[in-house]
Design goal:
Layout lengths: L2 H9 L3 H12 L3 H14 L8 H17 L6 H10 L6 H9 L6 H14 L22 E4 L6 E5 L11 E2 L9
Helix pairs in contact: 3-4, 4-7
Pfam families: Retrotran_gag_2 (PF14223)
Length: 178
């Protein structure tokens, strides 16, 4: 202890009064701790692909801390926040839980989530299909070639309803061609 603190403690008679004084001077107010716990609890989100069990283990101490500081939240509110913290891959579980109106404790809910995760292994979805590549030539113009006669390309605008422009190409300037 520093000399100043030592002098303050010497004026006090017994250990409980010393502890009370130390708490008054140096302790963080309960309101700040409750605010931090509430912020952490309402802001926590489970990352896609991470373990729901470890997520539940992170949530439980926050709930206990909120209860210790008398945050006055109901069990249903805790459950709602836990369900909202799950990633979209748990949407079927959430719908099922809400549809059948399960009245479970927080520990039972976490056990149900762990069982759901074990039964439905989450693997990333792979989309199988053809890859198409389309390249626009020029300034958004499309080129068409005529099948009959000489090959003449006509340039059309890419906009919807755009009218074809004058013919360009190697022909004699005829569109109808022979």
């Amino acid at each position: 202890m520093t000399n100043e603190i030592q002098k303050q403690c010497d004026r006090l008679e017994d250990v409980p009064s010393i502890m009370l004084r130390m708490k008054e001077v140096y302790a963080i107010p309960d309101r700040h701790i409750r605010y931090a716990a509430t912020k952490a609890f309402f802001g926590i989100k489970m990352a896609e692909g991470s373990s729901v069990q470890s997520h539940g283990v992170k949530m439980l101490p926050l709930i206990e801390k909120l209860e210790d500081f008398k945050a006055r939240l109901e069990n249903d509110t805790y459950i709602d926040v836990i369900l909202q913290s799950l990633p979209p891959s748990y949407d079927p579980f959430i719908v099922n839980y809400n549809m059948y109106g399960h009245e479970k404790s927080i520990h039972e809910l976490i056990n149900m989530m762990v069982q759901y995760e074990a039964n439905y292994k989450f693997e990333p979805a792979v989309l199988v299909g053809e890859l198409s590549t389309f390249k626009v030539k020029g300034n958004g113009a499309r080129h068409w070639k005529r099948k009959k006669g000489k090959e003449t390309s006509v340039t059309a605008t890419a906009s919807i309803g755009g009218a074809p422009t004058a013919p360009t190409g190697k022909g004699k300037g005829k569109i109808g061609g022979s």
